[in-house]
Amino acid sequence: MPEKLGRYNIVRELGKGAMGVVYEGIDPTINRRVAIKTARREVLESSGRADELMARFLREATATGSLNHPNIITIYDASEEDDMAYIAMEFLEGGDLFDVMERKQRFKPEEAVEIGALVCDALAEAHKHGVIHRDIKPANILMPTDAAPKVADFGIARVEDSNLTQEGAMIGTPHYMSPEQFMGQRANARSDLFSVGIIVYEMLTGEKPFGGEALSTVMHNVIKSEPIAPTELNFAINDCLNKVVLKALSKRPQDRYQSAAEMAAALRESLKPSPDPAVTQVEAGEPGATVAGQAPEDMATIVAAKLPDGDESPAASPRRPAGKKLPIPAIIAGVTVTVIALVAAISLLAGGKEEAGGEGGTPQESGRPAPPPQPDAYFKAANIVLVCVDDTGEPYTQASEAVERAIDQGSRLPELSGIEGCSLGNGKIVLTQIGKGEQTLEVDVRGGSKHVALDGHAWDKFRVVATSEGYLGAEDTCTATEPGETASVMLILLKQ
Q1: Which of 172, 354, 392, 464 has an alpha carbon 20 to 30 Å from 15's alpha carbon atom?
Q2: Which listed residue (51, 96, 121, 135) is catalytic?
Q3: What is the pLDDT of residues 120-133, one digit of tens each?
Q4: Sign of CA dihedral 249, 250, 254, 256
């Protein structure tokens, strides 16, 4: 450990980062504690991009040094000495939001909104000065012990007049990146807001909106999949806040909030008794209303109805619109009605049993055969298809659309002709039962596809993980809905 860096006396090591060590130091001129972040050129030489990475490191000082805001960490100094670059910044007691989220699975809506809104306040200041952060994530939001959150680590920020980052480079942390970042497009202020939306979602629900362990899985979910509504994971979230978060997670930048100030205002407004739609930019239902109290007409459940006489068919009960998920309160209400109806049916059967066979009689004794048991849903087989893609941009998007069409049309293979750098591939797949025995099957795939026979009813839910040399892995989870069905799994592997 060095004794000095520039004019700063080094006190102790605080931790290590990707580029170097972070120290606690003292500025002897004014006796101020500072945190000193370093980057050693020798550590970066092995990447072959030492000059670029050193420039990116010092850019944090350039980007953050021009900003003055209570929710942005303050930079005091930056320099380079003996092949070591360093940045001196304010020293803060406490950890970061990632640490807090690890200890605390869910936040109260008021807490999540306050943190999200303060991060938006900080970004509004940065964006006003042409600085796009591009790596907003919990680990880059510091949580001082006795102060408000502060946004840090502008190391990969883009200053609007800077040319350090090439177009087409995918920069950021996968679980918190926007669709346009994954596709190598130019990130703007609305990309940062997508990342804030992910963090707020995770604080409210304890879950990431776009899950997955493999990079290609996360990428597919961010670009193509819609997240589960926060209200389905946490009853404490009101309808307005639910819609504000989902708007922030819109796939198209033009459908999100157009500025950090707008999103901060919408978050804060969403918790008011009667949110103003002009501020939230969403239409919310009546505060406090639940489906159990008053269901919308298109989701109503018939609790009691007079059956028609003769051969007249009963009127069809209202059905839920296709594609709309039933909120959890409605499910609970439905379960309650079902239980009541089931108890009534059992009572009627018991009464009939006593009339036909006397006390203790059985259906067989009354002349009625017992209904056959209904088998559980399970898979008898799986058709696995591996698609290899060499580019994260348009080829990946086209391959994803081809896979979706094949699944929708029930095709065995996707149509990949005309997609540059895309083909059926070879690899290894591992299928693992979920919840029942954890049996595992390992199978080699050649020529892009493989039919796998699954033995036993325990294969009602399984995880499939695919790997191929030179490509990032991919995974998916399949849940059976019918007895003896065949799972169709098409996985996209992205070139490393």
Answers
A1: 172
A2: 135
A3: 999 999 999 888 89
A4: negative
